[in-house]
Design brief:
Number of domains of chain A: 1
Mean pLDDT of chain A: 86
Radius of gyration of chain B: 19 Å
Strand content of chain B: under 5%
Mean pLDDT of chain B: 72
Low-confidence stretches of chain A: none
Structural class of chain A: mainly alpha
Order of helices and strands of chain A: HHHHHHHHHH
Strand content of chain A: under 5%
Helix content of chain B: 55-70%
Shape of chain B: globular
Number of helices of chain A: 10
Oligomer: heterodimer
Structural class of chain B: mainly alpha
Helix content of chain A: over 70%
Largest sheet of chain A: none
Distance between the termini of chain B: 20 Å
Number of helices of chain B: 7
Order of helices and strands of chain B: HHHHHHH
Largest sheet of chain B: none
Number of strands of chain A: 0
Shape of chain A: globular
Radius of gyration of chain A: 17 Å
Distance between the termini of chain A: 20 Å
Number of domains of chain B: 1
């Protein structure tokens, strides 16, 4: 199973390297939102740790949706989904591989988007290592739910609108935990940052297990 | 809609009149108890009486993931719960809405169930629609314990549980508690009545679909 998941993830990452439109779109989206935030609410409010963290994670949630939809669009354009699903254990591998590859892509997106936010907003970070831990675990907590919802909305009309409607309400606990954890790391609350990071890890494990259990039934 | 389209062995239409009578009778009893028998609260006055409809409406989303019938009634009851909560909050807290964790989580749950119905509505194939809805229902139902626990996790404006308390007996006067339980029972029967009617309708609709194919 792990080998098949790694195989799908590798294939996915190769496709992303050859045609990195998912990463480019996600990073651009975050950059535009950070710029807009500073212009709309003013640089003083935008530099507030809670506001900056909230906007970063909202942008990352949308970026996850964008990257996941782009990833499945690529499968549909190449008629690759049917072949993959027909392989033994293909459905589990498809979910696991997509989650793994998206997590890796999102680490890159979060690193570029996060550094951009810190530079543009001139935000001092009190606990950089804690911030890295929170961001890594937060990035792991997002893809399982988004992949589930993109699979459910696959081949449906109006799915570009449907996926955010399905995914964002379910992502609320993760977004709250990630925002609070990031804010705690920026302001120097080590215990708070690690507590929220633990919750993010729990969410990532729970939703990955749920996804591996139920998503194979939903893949057509 | 005729009964002839309902598959044989379906007992729902036969028990529905009795369920309707039981729901109506218990609703009248619960309303009378809530309005006349239960005493006035020492702090909140008569405005607290809305809890006899506000609390029972919260029960039904627990069954929401089962089927479209339950989802639709869940949306209705959760919507009414939020409206009744606002009516209670204005004189008690001084605001119609506050960003209190339990309220927000309930509103999010409401949006999830609307999303569930949207997902069903956009799927045209019957079996795929059922599978998709079931999978999303499982994901959405995880939110239900979060709704219940959020009041315990967060130190917030919403009052702590008064009936299912971690320590000790319910913090309610006996007539208030009895009235609340009767109201809860009445709204559960109303829910069951709606459910049986909607399930029969859905079965009849599916029966027509199968006949066509």
């Amino acid at each position: 199973m792990i080998e098949r998941i790694a195989l799908v993830a590798t294939r996915e990452l190769r496709a992303e390297r050859r045609q990195p439109d998912g990463v480019v779109a996600a990073v651009t989206f975050i950059a535009v939102l950070v710029l807009l935030e500073s212009l709309v609410v003013g640089p003083q409010i935008a530099r507030d740790a809670d506001v900056a963290s909230a906007l970063f994670w909202l942008a990352l949630a949308f970026a996850t949706i964008l990257a996941t939809m782009r990833s499945f669009d690529r499968e549909l354009e190449d008629d690759a989904l049917e072949g993959l699903v027909a392989l033994p254990g293909g459905r589990d591998a498809l979910f696991g591989g997509k989650v793994l590859s998206l997590a890796i892509v999102l680490v890159l997106v979060a690193a570029i988007g996060g550094l951009l936010s810190l530079l543009l907003l001139d935000l001092p970070v009190a606990l950089p290592l804690h911030l890295v831990v929170v961001v890594l675990l937060g990035v792991l907590a997002l893809p399982p739910i988004v992949v589930v919802d993109v699979v459910l909305a696959l081949r449906l009309r109006a799915r570009a609108a449907l996926v955010p409607i399905l995914a964002l309400p379910v992502l609320v606990p993760q977004l709250v935990a990630a925002t609070r954890g990031t804010s705690a790391a920026i302001t120097g609350d080590a215990v708070g940052a690690l507590s929220w990071a633990g919750l993010l890890f729990a969410f990532a494990v729970v939703y990955t297990v749920i996804g591996l259990t139920i998503v194979p039934a939903a893949i057509e | 809609m005729t009964e002839t389209t309902i598959p044989r062995g379906n007992t729902l239409p036969r028990i529905r009149p009795w369920l309707g009578i039981a729901a109506a009778a218990s609703f009248v009893v619960a309303s009378a108890m809530a309005l006349f028998w239960a005493p006035t609260d020492a702090v909140q006055g008569d405005v607290y009486r809305i809890l006899y409809v506000h609390v029972p409406w919260t029960k039904n989303p627990l069954f929401d993931a089962m089927a479209v019938a339950s989802a639709e009634i869940g949306v209705l009851f959760t919507g009414l719960f939020l409206v009744a909560g606002s009516i209670w909050a204005k004189p008690t807290w001084g605001v119609w809405w506050t960003w209190e964790p339990r309220l927000v989580t309930t509103a999010i749950m409401f949006v999830m169930y609307v999303g569930y119905l949207l997902l069903r509505g956009l799927s045209t194939d019957f079996s795929r629609r059922a599978t998709r809805a079931a999978v999303f229902g499982i994901v959405a139902v995880i939110d239900v314990p979060i709704v219940h626990l959020s009041v315990l996790w967060a130190n917030s404006l919403h009052q702590l549980p008064t009936v299912l308390r971690v320590a000790g007996s319910p913090a309610l006067d006996t007539p208030m508690l009895v009235t609340l339980m009767v109201s809860l029972g009445a709204y559960t029967l109303i829910y069951a009545y709606f459910m049986s009617a909607r399930v029969s309708l859905e079965l009849a609709r599916q029966g027509r679909l199968w006949t066509r194919t």
